[in-house]
Specification:
With about 190 residues, this protein is mainly α. It is built from 7 helices and no strands. Helices cover about 80% and strands about 0% of the residues. The model has no long low-confidence stretch (mean pLDDT about 90). The structure holds fe (ii) ion (FE2) (2 copies).
């Protein structure tokens, strides 16, 4: 779907529904359910459209917190960068914006992994190597997706963004909580 079609899609559909509802009210009368049904769909359309738009974006939730402020800040920043990338996809902002959003997300992901691994090392986390391997695998998978994007262009971008979004959200909300629980216990923060 082109950018113009995307932008026009909802107003065009609402305009059509409005005309159809008015015409059917005149043709079938207020006692007939069809015009009422069309009116209902007409009012529901903008909410559905907004919901479809938002489902690609990630919202930070308190339950994502690992209890260590600097790591939470990194994770928030990563989710913001994912949303930045989703904006590039959803609004088809062009190749330059796509590349920048993707590069920034990959760069920050690597930076965050280094910080996290250094923290685990500092506190003697026993599963550091396992965690480190997960990070390395993710970077390798993500690089393969990015390579795919570089050869196929825009049509491959949604796959990259979905992979990064799902991996990061699951990792932040699962595996990362294992090292943070260890560190918090060790430092008597809990
Ligand atoms: Fe993390
Ligand atoms: Fe991690």
């Amino acid at each position: 779907m082109t950018n113009a079609m995307k932008l026009l899609g909802t107003p065009l559909l609402m305009g059509t529904l409005l005309v159809a509802a008015i015409l059917t009210f005149f043709a079938l009368g207020v006692g007939n359910p069809v015009p009422w049904l069309l009116t209902l769909v007409l009012f529901a359309t903008p909410f559905y459209s907004k919901w479809r738009e938002n489902e690609h974006f990630v919202v930070w939730r308190d339950e994502y917190s690992v209890g260590i402020a600097e790591m939470d800040d990194d994770h928030r920043k990563l989710l913001n960068l994912i949303n930045h990338l989703q904006t590039a996809i959803h609004y088809q902002t062009g190749e330059k914006f796509e590349q920048e959003a993707l590069d920034e997300l990959m760069t920050y992901t690597r930076y965050h992994f280094q910080r996290e691994e250094a923290l685990m090392q500092q506190y003697g986390y026993p599963d550091l190597e396992v965690h480190q391997k997960l990070h390395q695998e993710m970077v390798a998978d993500a690089e393969a997706f990015v390579k795919d994007y570089r050869s196929k262009g825009y049509k491959a971008l949604a796959g990259v963004a979905d992979y990064l979004k799902n991996w990061l959200v699951n990792h932040i909300n699962g595996t990362d909580k294992e090292y943070s629980a260890f560190i918090l216990q060790k430092t008597h923060f809990v």
